[in-house]
Design brief:
With 114 residues, this protein is mainly beta. The protein is built from no helices and 11 strands.
Length: 114
Amino acid sequence: QVQLVESGGGLVQPGGSLRLSCAASGIEFSINTMGWYRQAPGKQRELVAAVTSGGSTNYATSVKGRFTISRDNAKNTVYLQMDHLKPEDTAVYYCNARWANNYWGQGTQVTVSS
C-alpha cells in the first residue's frame, strides 16, 4: 500500500518560512521523481518543484530563489523549504511520486497572512 504523508504546513506571516516534509512508503522511493504541487481555491493544481532520482530539480517561476526541494533517499522523504513566503503562496500543498505510476498525498494547508 502506497502512502505519502505530508507535514509541516500551517499559518505564517508574509516573509516567513516553512518546511514541508513528505514521508513515503510502499514505493521504491529512490527511483521516483518526487514533486510538490499546490492548489489554491478556484485555481488548478500546479507544479511547485520537483526532484528526479538523479537529483535534478526544477521549479515554478513564481518560487525560484525562494523555495528549495530536496530528498533523503535513506529516509524515503522529500522536503520543500519555503522562504520569503508571500500571500499568493497560500494553497494546499500536495506531495507527488511519479515513476511507473502517479501517487498523491492528502495535502497540507499553507496559509500566508498577517
